[in-house]
């Protein structure tokens, strides 16, 4: 009899629910519903998502979305023709899901019509501000002022937007307070500025990737999302996957995110221009320059082929950062990756990056489906596109003049002239930029960090003059036919 009672008690105990919130996920079905509207009028065709599934608003602007307790946000793809809502200094296209036992929850979104046509717009790309100390904020303010001056001088006739492609600050665990002043500075530009999560924006004191971005989300919201401007569909992805071991992370897009991306792009007509922003690049030659030419999983997106396959029907541009060097790659006939140099230069210790690229940012001019771009150096005219070095400046080419053309891609042409006579195209080579090499050699002992170094780059060019006494100049012509000329003094 006693034995039967013990068995009965054990059966009852095993049937009881586990009350530890972390031990059991809330998978109960919940329904979210509401409207997306402008001055009370519903907006049709707006994607609404919980980060897992996506639905579209009906002709009345109404939506219904089934979700569960694992979702954190309900958010929308802000359509073209409507302003990007700003709250707490950041784009606010999302609503935090309240913890509730209610099976149904209403969440509405109110948008405002834009007074300007966004078919023609400009997009600013910063990568890796990576602020680590309060006194470095003044450098970021200088960069923000540079953007404001550029908008005033060149783009007052159109809307301008921007994004930071990750590593907003240097150490989330040590100096999380830097997020607020960074948001203040970015907001001073008075344009909608979006954010992507970087490896320096994650919390390293947690057990898994699920919890690594809590602080980032507190400040900026969902780590992956989309929005439309003009004819361009923008997607921001989270490709920093924390492996739960000290500072170890990899470039990786989980299946949940890939599935969401497939749904997101299902509403975008094939052949459209799609811009994907993320921190870790999908591809990088620089990443292969390590030991035995291996490609470390921390350097590039490990499942990039899955991303390329999803992007195949579109004219795609990938905006990335992470490498602190400037690189451009045509990955396929339809995919162009722009890996942006760090706006912090050499971690705010020098005005150039590892590869000699000047501290600056990318500028993209969209007109319908078409896009043109250039690199803008902080404090310099937009025509400043390369550095020219005299004979002997580069140890790799002691008898040659050299040029560092940081935004180079294979469609660019680099010519050298002697006494105004074009002598031919300069040859490309891999080496060290003289500016940053000499600067680190002369000043490295005074840097805040003892691990800073220079790195090789393959956007260097050389030519051996026929007449060393001749007047030398170099002309660089970008893929859009713009000509930039520097002369050796």
UniProtKB/TrEMBL annotation:
Residue span(s) of domain Calcineurin-like phosphoesterase C-terminal: 337-484
Highest taxon of the lineage: Bacteria
Annotated GO MF terms: hydrolase activity
Keywords: Signal
Record's signal peptide: 1-25
The keyword Translocase is assigned to this record: no
InterPro entries linked: Calcineurin-like_PHP, Metallo-depent_PP-like, Metallophos_C, Metallophos_N, STPP_CPPED1
Record carries keyword Signal: yes
Domain Calcineurin-like phosphoesterase N-terminal: 34-111
Domain (Calcineurin-like phosphoesterase) ranges: 149-325
UniProt cross-references to SUPFAM superfamilies, sorted A to Z: Metallo-dependent phosphatases
Name this protein carries in UniProt: Calcineurin-like phosphoesterase domain-containing protein
Organism ancestry: Bacteria, Pseudomonadati, Bacteroidota, Bacteroidia, Bacteroidales
